[in-house]
């Protein structure tokens, strides 16, 4: 780049490459780290040619986009998968009243149905924060104003496409990272007693480790537990019971050992992280970036 170019670099940091990247993020809402990296490379090459754009890391590139998003109360944020630590980039809406925003996306019947599902997942009898698919369809049909089961099924499919819910291989609906991040305030306000917060990072946790003392409500993300336990000698900070890292909760536990086994095998075969594999439906889209046509049409 010439000297004249670098004089205006600050004002011109937000380029067409950033714009193109953001338009694709808005279409996809949730992307893997790999897909995000690929999209960034393609956007820069498409706008700046094969010699590449300004010397900027992916983190700086996204920071520039976040400056533009700030007045809109939106942010591209990295979220770690609860089990595998895989990174997901999510376009997050930061405005306070999250459920009110949903009213612009869904009809009143759909919104009530969504709230019903959230309530069932959060209050799941076994504490695994998930709901079997047959139960979900039957209950939703019974409790909501959908005309028939097909309509009910279509709505569940849409919640997965919109990245609020994920369906595990064993057929359990659970909250997807988008719901955990964007509906955080709603979940904490509405389900203060039922929702679990990681005792270490204070974020919501729906899959992780729990204290073996059933009277104690200490829970950890797997990723938070590891480093903590190495330092604090396997003791629960609250009840002082010895911590057993094999006492888990979440959708993988609800699926039972058989599903767990096949999930591990799939993980090994595909070389993917288990958090990604455990959510097969959104996975197909999460693994890819926008198709060539989508990319050029935005
Ligand atoms: Zn944590
Ligand atoms: Zn405890």
Low-confidence region ranges: 1-7, 260-298
Bound molecules: zinc ion
**Count of alpha and pi helical runs:** 15
- Tell me the name of the CATH class of the largest domain: Alpha Beta
Structural class: mainly alpha
Spatial strand arrangement across the major sheet: 1-3-2
SSE order, as H and E? HHEHHEEHHEHHEEHHEEHEHHHH
Overall geometric form: globular
Q: What is the helix fraction of residues, given as a range?
A: 40-55%
- Mean pLDDT over all positions: 81
Let me know the number of strands: 9
What's the CATH architecture of the largest domain? Alpha-Beta Complex
Provide the gyration radius in Å: 21 Å
List the SSEs and their pairings.
Blueprint: H1 3-7, H2 16-28, E1 30-32, H3 33-48, H4 58-69, E2 74-80, E3 87-93, H5 98-102, H6 108-122, E4 130-132, H7 133-143, H8 149-161, E5 165-167, E6 172-175, H9 177-182, H10 184-190, E7 208-210, E8 219-220, H11 222-232, E9 248-249, H12 251-270, H13 274-277, H14 280-287, H15 292-297
Antiparallel strand pairs: 1-3, 2-3, 4-6, 5-6, 7-8, 7-9
Helix pairs in contact: 2-3, 7-8
One zinc ion binds next to loops.
Could you describe the 3D structure shown?
This protein is mainly alpha-helical and 298 residues long. It has three domains: 3-97 and 285-297, Aspartate Aminotransferase, domain 1, CATH 3.90.1150.220; 99-184, Arc Repressor Mutant, subunit A, CATH 1.10.10.10; 193-264, Zinc/RING finger domain, C3HC4 (zinc finger) (Herpes Virus-1). Helix content is 51%, strand content 11%. It has helices at 3-7, 16-28, 33-48, 58-69, 98-102, 108-122, 133-143, 149-161, 177-182, 184-190, 222-232, 251-270, 274-277, 280-287, 292-297; strands at 30-32, 74-80, 87-93, 130-132, 165-167, 172-175, 208-210, 219-220, 248-249. The protein has a three-stranded antiparallel β-sheet with strand order 1-3-2. Strands 4-6-5 form a three-stranded antiparallel β-sheet, sandwiched between helices. A three-stranded antiparallel β-sheet has the order 8-7-9. The radius of gyration is 21 Å and the shape is globular. The two termini are 27 Å apart. Residues 1-7 and 260-298 have low confidence and may be disordered. The structure holds zinc ion (2 copies). The site of one zinc ion (ZN) has 8 residues, from loops.
């Amino acid at each position: 780049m010439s000297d004249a170019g670098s004089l205006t670099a600050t004002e011109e940091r937000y380029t067409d490459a950033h714009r193109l990247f953001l338009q694709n993020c808005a279409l996809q809402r949730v992307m893997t780290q790999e897909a995000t990296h690929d999209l960034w490379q393609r956007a820069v090459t498409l706008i700046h040619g094969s010699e590449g754009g300004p010397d900027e890391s992916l983190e700086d590139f996204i920071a520039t986009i976040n400056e533009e998003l700030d007045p809109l109360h939106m942010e591209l944020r990295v979220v770690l998968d609860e089990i595998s630590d895989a990174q997901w980039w999510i376009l997050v809406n930061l405005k306070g009243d999250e459920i009110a925003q949903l009213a612009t996306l869904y009809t009143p019947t759909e919104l009530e149905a969504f709230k019903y599902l959230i309530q069932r997942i959060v209050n799941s009898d076994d504490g695994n924060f998930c709901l079997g698919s047959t139960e979900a369809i039957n209950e939703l049909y019974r409790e909501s104003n959908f005309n028939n089961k097909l309509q009910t099924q279509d709505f569940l499919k849409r919640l997965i496409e919109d990245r609020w819910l994920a369906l595990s291989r064993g057929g359990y609906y659970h909250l997807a990272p988008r719901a955990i991040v964007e509906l955080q305030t709603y979940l904490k306000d509405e389900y203060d007693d039922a929702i679990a917060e990681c005792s270490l990072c204070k974020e919501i946790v729906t899959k992780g480790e729990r204290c073996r003392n059933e009277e104690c409500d200490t829970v950890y993300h797997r990723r938070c537990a590891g480093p903590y336990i190495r330092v604090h000698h396997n003791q629960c900070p609250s009840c002082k019971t010895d911590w057993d890292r094999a006492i888990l909760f979440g959708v993988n536990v609800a699926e039972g050992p058989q599903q767990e086994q096949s999930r591990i095998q799939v993980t090994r075969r595909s070389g993917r992280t288990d958090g990604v594999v455990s959510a097969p439906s959104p996975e197909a889209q999460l693994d890819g970036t926008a198709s060539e046509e989508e990319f050029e049409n935005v």
